[in-house]
Design brief:
The chain has 325 residues and is α/β, with parallel strands linked by helices. The chain has 2 domains: 2-173, Peroxisomal Thiolase, Chain A, domain 1 (3-Layer(aba) Sandwich); 182-324, Peroxisomal Thiolase, Chain A, domain 1. The protein has helices at residues 21-24, 32-39, 53-68, 92-100, 116-129, 153-156, 217-239, 256-265, 277-280, 287-297, and strands at 2-13, 17-20, 43-46, 77-81, 106-110, 135-143, 161-173, 182-190, 198-200, 213-215, 248-251, 306-313, 317-324. The strands form 4 sheets. Strands 1-7-6-4-5 form a 5-stranded mixed β-sheet, with helices on both faces. A 4-stranded mixed β-sheet has the order 8-13-12-11, with helices on both faces. The longest helix has 23 residues, at 217-239.
């Protein structure tokens, strides 16, 4: 027997305003055909006045707790992945903690951009396995619209805002039982040599400004397909599973072509890949938990399913995690 972090519930939140490609063409020099052909994106949600990373994260967290049937008072750990915090400090996780009324436990942010949710999940899993926490909220939340250059049509059409959350709870499981639930294996990587391919051109210690997102899309695409395929194989090897055993892949929703290319590299059928990029665009750290919650709510992902999470983002950072739901 050993302690394992088990998913008890999930939740998500989106801003009120949905911006279609057709609306995007009214203020950006682009076309619906251009966006769909290159990315698969048809719409995205943009935060309005009063909607922030913390408000979206709080709503997603509440919905996850409701789905789990767990009172917020039991939460003793919040790990929030975001590249767009409400403030430079304190951590947005502490704002969410206060909103939920579970002050006193552990709460902090993780910054790994689009891979942030995987980094947050691994961190919470480790703290649960060591007994530091018993009930955790793992959240990915972003308001990327606030750091976009709306005159750069190659990037501003790609991103949206949103939040997703899961509740993890400590559970004693029999490791010899192949059907036992929980986080089975995670692998994370980073390579700072590629900073200039995907970054924000500002920061407190450099420009004293928030800055805007900059990206060289073609180079990012090439690294993404290679790195994601590699880390997926790594997690399968360490967990002792084969690609054929995976019920669902829940990937970072950056670009439909990346999702398709990564699946083909592993001989995974496309019908096993959860795709929400057409509805949400790239919501960075929020995209994996958002997509997971969609697939939970519509009944695709069921208890007992073997689910692979994977993501790559600026840094570069990348990772994957295999979970028995």
């Amino acid at each position: 027997m050993s302690l394992r972090a088990v998913i008890r519930g999930s939740g998500s939140a989106l801003p009120e305003r949905c911006v279609t490609n057709a609306e995007m063409t009214t203020f950006v020099d682009t076309t619906d055909e251009w966006i769909v052909e290159r990315t698969g994106i048809r719409q995205r949600y943009i935060a309005g006045e009063g909607e922030t990373t913390s408000t979206l994260a709080t709503l997603a967290a509440r919905r996850a707790l409701d789905a789990a049937g767990i009172d917020a008072a039991r939460v003793d750990l919040i790990v929030l992945a975001t590249a767009t915090p409400d403030q430079t400090f304190p951590a947005t996780a502490t704002i969410v903690q206060h909103n939920l009324g579970c002050n006193g436990g552990i709460a902090f942010d993780v910054s790994a951009v689009c891979s942030g949710f995987l980094y947050a999940l691994a961190t919470a899993d480790s703290l649960i396995r060591t007994g530091m926490a018993k009930c955790a909220l793992v959240i990915g939340a972003e308001t990327f619209s606030r750091i976009l250059d709306w005159e750069d049509r190659t990037t501003c059409v790609l991103f949206g805002d949103g939040a997703g959350a899961i509740v993890l709870e400590s559970q004693d499981v029999n490791d010899a039982d192949p059907a036992a639930p929980g986080v089975l294996a995670t692998r994370l990587h980073a390579d700072g040599a590629h900073n200039e391919l995907l970054f924000v051109d500002g920061g407190p210690s450099t420009t004293g400004t928030v800055g805007k997102l900059r990206m060289k899309g073609r180079e990012v695409f090439r690294h993404a397909v290679t790195n994601l395929a590699s880390v997926l194989r790594e997690v399968l090897e360490v967990s002792g599973h084969s690609p054929a055993e995976i019920d669902w892949v829940v990937p970072h929703q950056a670009n439909f072509r990346i999702l398709d290319a990564t699946a083909r590299k592993l001989d995974l059928p496309s019908e096993k890949v959860v795709v929400t990029v057409d509805r949400h665009a790239n919501t960075s750290a929020a995209s994996v938990p958002l997509a997971f919650d969609v697939a939970i709510k519509d009944g695709r992902i069921k208890p007992g399913d073997l689910v692979m999470f994977e993501a790559m983002g600026g840094g570069f950072t990348w990772g994957a995690s295999l979970v028995r739901v």
